[in-house]
Amino acid sequence: MEDGEAGSSPAPEKKGAEEEDDFGYRLFPDRNKKQQSFLVRSLFTFHNKCQVMLRMTLETNPYAQLLLEAMKQSGCTVFNDRHFSCENCDGCVGGGFDAATSQIVLCQNNIRQQSHMNRVVTHELIHAFDHCRAHVDWFKNVKHLACSEIRAASLSGDCTLMNEIARFKFGLKGHHQTCVRDRAIRSILAVRKVSKETAEKAVDEVFDACFNDLEPFGRIPHSKTDARRAFRDFQNRDRYNANL
Predict the structure, then answer these.
(1) What pLDDT is recorded for position 23?
(2) Residue (of 167, 195, 191) closest to 179 by Cα position
(3) CA angle at residue 93 from 145 to 209, to 5 degrees?
(4) Class of domain 23-135
């Protein structure tokens, strides 16, 4: 998860156990509410705008398109109506991946710009891709969560130079790695009731391996141009493999 933009892997909250970890569900209050009818939801401007921006991301954003294709080839085809849900969330997050339902939550009250939607969808699709390709223990193994948060922060565009400048954070050598580490730690702390030291230790122990895991991009895409090239290379790689 990234603060103000995305969350990851909440699990059902256990009632009557306030001292137990709620796995981030407090950030997504609509998760435990009865689903409203489409007619009722369509009357809300936020919901309509969220749906329109989501469609735009899925149809035009190269980051999302690559991830959707990779998941399809891994046997985890993503369907708009089934795997995405526009909901109201806590004021500090933009979205989350609910591993219990394999559904991406998009915070319709917090996502106001298309560029923000692009980053949230990409970030959460990386979690979904990891969920599809690996046996990720989201709820009991903080190292697994840390690994996916590292990959999501690194590959989704969260830590691009322009985004960091917008956050008034500047750096040169190794700044991308610093940004990825910081955002992964903050994401863990947002959805798990663990100490900062525990989150830092988990991230540091898996950082090198997970930071260098570039699937399915094959590179760190620092811009849409990079993502388009990665998507093209991914498609060509599959065509090459098909001819072997």
Answers:
(1) 64
(2) 167
(3) 25
(4) alpha beta
Which pLDDT tens digit goes with each residue over 163-222? 666 665 666 667 899 999 999 999 999 989 999 999 999 999 999 999 999 999 999 998
Instruction: In whole angstroms, give the CA distance from residue 187 to residue 152.
Output: 10
**β-bridge partners, 97:** 104
Residue 124: active-site member: yes
Cα angle: 181, vertex 186, 187; to 5 degrees: 100
Residue of 5, 87, 124, 200 with catalytic role: 124
Name the β-bridge partners of 98: 103
Ramachandran angles phi, psi of 6, nearest 5°: -155, 155
Q: Spell out the alpha helix ranges (H) of 43-113.
A: 45-60, 62-73, 80-83
Structural contact between residues 105 and 89, judged by C-beta atoms closer than 8 angstroms: yes
Strand, coil or helix: what is 106? strand
- Write the DSSP symbol of residue 61: -
Residue whose token pair is 């435990």: 32
Q: Which helix (H) or strand (E) holds 211?
A: helix 196-211
Question: Does residue 59 contact residue 80 with C-beta atoms inside 8 Å?
Answer: no
Residue pointed to by tokens 């954070």:
169
User: Which stretches of 61-193 are DSSP H helices?
Assistant: 62-73, 80-83, 114-133, 142-155, 161-166, 175-191
**Domain ranges within the chain, ordered by starting residue:** 23-135, 137-216
Is beta strand 84-87 parallel, antiparallel or unpaired with respect to 103-107?
A: parallel
The pair of three-digit structure tokens given for residue 199, joined into one six-digit string = 């989150």
